[in-house]
């Protein structure tokens, strides 16, 4: 991986230099006030004046002018990238809707259940005694889980006593597709209403208690729910395409030597 990392870093260095040179060629400017603000923001990353002076001495031969030049260079790169990439990568709502309408398969959702769990998990290769202890712990937990009045009560209990990985997230598995639920859990949630808590269910070597939060029928994800993430995905794709295209155009006009 080291070679790939080095190659990627080198490409980024070349790309930024070409962008900077293009900004200079276009005679783009940075106002004095903007540059002063950027320099002030740059200095804030140093916790003390001594730390800042040490940076100047080590990296810039003590030159404040060189520091301002580097900050100006960064601002020019950012400005040109905003013009050529960020602004052009913006995805209007109408464009996202058109993509949504043309690609319905991407937005079909399978039947699923939103569930929370509290689980007792014996160690690997548990002895019969350890399995019995886990079952007893689950029985005690069930009485507390049945007393939970809502999502928050059940979730806080999960964070306190559950032994599975979902305990750090209020026991919440979010939406799980029907065919991905263990058969015993699926059988239980099919017989429950939203908000109900199951009995103790043995799944392989552990014991779990399930709260059904919601049943999500199969269908299409509404555009209102999909639009924000869809626009971000499309903007990411356009950003990569625009950066790649800009890189190719700038390289075509430049001589790049790697020594």
What this model shows, in words?
The protein is an alpha+beta fold and 259 residues long. It folds into 2 domains: 126 residues, Orthogonal Bundle (Triger factor/SurA peptide-binding fold), CATH 1.10.4030.10; 110 residues, Chitinase A, domain 3, CATH 3.10.50.40. It is built from 9 helices and 6 strands; from the N terminus they run αααααββααβαβββα. The strands form 2 sheets. It has a 4-stranded antiparallel sheet with strand order 3-2-5-4, with helices on both faces. A two-stranded antiparallel sheet has the order 1-6. A hairpin with a 2-residue loop joins β4 and β5. α2 crosses α4 and α4 packs across α9. The longest helix is centred in the C-terminal third of the chain and has 30 residues. It is elongated.
Topology:
Layout: H1 2-25, H2 32-43, H3 49-60, H4 64-89, H5 93-102, E1 108-109, E2 112-120, H6 128-147, H7 151-161, E3 172-177, H8 183-190, E4 197-203, E5 206-216, E6 219-220, H9 223-252
Antiparallel strand pairs: 1-6, 2-3, 2-5, 4-5
Q: SSE order, as H and E?
A: HHHHHEEHHEHEEEH
Q: Count all strands and give the number.
A: 6
The main sheet orders its strands as: 3-2-5-4
Shape: elongated
From the helix content, strand content and strand pairing, which structural class follows? alpha+beta
β-strand percent reads: 5-15%
Which architecture of the largest domain does the CATH hierarchy give at level 2? Orthogonal Bundle
CATH superfamily of the largest domain, by name, is Porin chaperone SurA, peptide-binding domain
Q: Which CATH class of the largest domain? A: Mainly Alpha
> What is the mean predicted local confidence, pLDDT?
95
Q: How many angstroms does the end-to-end distance come to?
A: 21 Å
| Total tally of structural domains | 2
Predict the CATH topology of the largest domain.
Answer: Triger factor/SurA peptide-binding fold
List low-pLDDT spans.
none
């Amino acid at each position: 991986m080291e070679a790939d990392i080095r190659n990627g870093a080198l490409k980024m260095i070349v790309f930024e230099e070409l962008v900077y040179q293009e900004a200079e060629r276009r005679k783009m400017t940075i106002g004095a006030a903007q540059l002063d603000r950027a320099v002030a923001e740059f200095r804030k990353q140093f916790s003390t004046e001594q730390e800042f002076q040490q940076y100047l001495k080590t990296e810039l031969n003590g030159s404040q002018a060189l520091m301002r030049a580097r900050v100006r260079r960064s601002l020019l790169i950012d400005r040109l990238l905003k013009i050529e990439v960020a602004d052009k990568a913006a995805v209007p709502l109408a464009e996202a809707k058109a993509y949504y309408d043309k690609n319905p398969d991407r937005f079909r959702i399978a039947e699923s259940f939103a569930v929370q769990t509290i689980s007792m998990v014996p160690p690997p290769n548990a002895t019969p005694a350890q399995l019995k202890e886990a079952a007893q712990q689950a029985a005690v937990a069930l009485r507390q889980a049945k007393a939970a009045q809502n999502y928050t009560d059940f979730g806080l209990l999960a964070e306190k006593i559950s032994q599975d990985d979902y305990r750090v997230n209020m026991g919440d598995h979010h939406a799980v597709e029907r065919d991905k639920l263990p058969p015993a859990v699926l059988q239980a949630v099919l017989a429950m209403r939203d908000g109900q808590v199951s009995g103790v269910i043995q799944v392989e070597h552990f014991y779990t208690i399930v709260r059904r939060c919601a049943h999500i029928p199969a269908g299409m994800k509404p555009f209102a729910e999909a639009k924000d993430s869809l626009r971000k995905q499309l903007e990411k794709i356009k950003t990569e395409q625009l950066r790649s295209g800009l890189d190719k155009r700038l390289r075509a006009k430049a001589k790049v030597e790697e020594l």
